[in-house]
Amino acid sequence: MLLWLLIKWALLAAAFAITAWLLTGMEVSGGFWGYLWVSALFGIVNAVVGTILRILTFPLTLLTLGLFLIVINALMLELTDWLSDHLTIDEFWWTAIWGAIILSFTSVVLEAIVGSMLRRAET
Questions:
Q1: What pTM does this model have?
Q2: Total Cβ atoms within 10 A of residue 44
């Protein structure tokens, strides 16, 4: 359980690195430790504030068939940017929205790849 949490943390840091590399308006400073710090802070912000926002905006999320979750993730990125000196997002609408989309997609792909590799190694 703890090992999988650490692996997911490292994968989120890698997803932040890929997102910052692909998106010109998003930058993470501080090298390896900066990526780990931003991913840890984003995870905490997403777990606490993101959960509350998802509960409060559940009807709107249903009406938009889940697309409003992208806006919530973009807000979580902006909040992480506000809390940390290592993450810089230049503007909300395009950079944070695209950052949320790319970050979500990369996280899912990385977790699927590593998860399948770990399951294959267990057998």
A1: 0.89
A2: 13
Q: Are 40 and 28 in contact (CB under 8 A)?
A: no
Report domain extents, the chain.
Answer: 2-122
- How far is it, in rounded angstroms, from Cα 42 to Cα 96? 13
For 2, 10, 103, 110, 118, the CA distances from 7, given in Å and listed in that order, are 9, 5, 16, 10, 11
Residues 92-101 have pLDDT tens digits of 778 999 999 9
Q: Which DSSP string do the residues of 29-91 spell out, in sequence order? A: -SHHHHHHHHHHHHHHHIIIIIHHHHHHTHHHHHHTTTTHHHHHHHHHHHHHHHH-SSEEES-
Rounded CA-CA distance 56/53 in Å is 5
| Residue 91 to residue 20: CA distance in whole angstroms | 14
What is the chain's Cα-based Rg? Answer: 15
